Amino acid sequence: METKKTSKSKRKESVTLRRKKLANGNVSLYLDIYWNGRRSYEFLKLYLTKAKTPLEKSINKETLATAEAIKAKRQIELQNNEYGFSSHFKLDTPFLDYFRKMCKDREDSEGNSGNWKSTLRHLENYCDEKTTFKDITADWINGFKDYLNNADKDTHKVKHNTDEYEFKPLSQNTKVSYFNKLRACINKAFDDRVLAINPLRGIEGFKQDETERVYLTLDEVKSLTATECRYPVLKRAFLFGCLTGMRKSDIEKMTWKDVQKFGDFTRVTFKQKKTGGQEYLDISEQAVGYMGERGKDNEKVFSGFKYNSYTLVELSKWCMKAGITKDVTFHTSRHTFAVLMLDLGAEIYTVSKLLGHKELKTTQIYSNILDKKKQEAVNLIPKLKI
Questions:
Q1: I want to staple 227 with a disulfide (CB 3.0 to 4.6 A). Which of 209, 232, 322, 386 is the partner?
Q2: Distance between CA 70 and CA 242 in Å, rounded?
Q3: Distance (Å, rounded) from C-alpha 341 to C-alpha 64?
Q4: Is the pLDDT of residue 5 over 70?
């Protein structure tokens, strides 16, 4: 008995990732935490499924990696509490000033910068300049979620009495975007050791609404190829996007220095403007043909191409001339590439890498658009006599 007591008293603080099999066959991941002589459990709301396909196995791998990352953070938190490191954290840091700094760091990112500034305006309406990270608790975060549910597109309005004015609530995807900006700020503060414990734990964000992804069929792309466009550089850039999946922002800034021969292929090396990820993209000979004659290293490949509202009008006119009535934007070219690749038999993991997606589930959306199994199923019913 004495030996057991001694062993127990010497037990160190620990975090263990464990698994629990559920009735439906899935596995729930949770943390077994031993701290300060007590044991507690933290269920992560992360699940491993019965993986049969390569996609399902890949998703399980990503889920497990997420759980391991949470486990590592919890271990650090225990060590900080154990060794008294809390004094090293900067809880008195003004929250809005910290968020404004993050906004400023993103000024070079066109669309994303606007979302950060819009989120800031709502946060300024929700809290005040005296708010510090000491105030950023789970209740404060949930309070901001409630605020977004009742906020108007006009940041100075909150729903109280709708008879006073026409209330225009934020769309679901806008709420997702704004809450994710707050999430990014809090996570960075945690990584920067401003916060000792991440108050986001256990708080779910808003669920994204599925939006229609407009794409072109192969026949529609062929139709555009055969149709004259008022601005040839717009035509070349758009069709290049259909054949490579590159975003308009990356096509705009691409120079000839980024384009090199790599064995039998032409390779484009670039850093994604949206995500910052370094990409190495081998492109087809068809795509190379739309780049035109090679220029100097510092010259842009699609010189004169600048996408704006005026260009969008010309893109629409070109599509209508080709007999396409879809609501086409330049980003449609990226959607088109993804759907064509999957339709022609490319594996979803490969398509994900070609698009530069960080998570496979982002690419899976295109797989849902083009579900061969569903297409085959609807033709199973025998023909009926008319």
A1: 322
A2: 39
A3: 28
A4: no
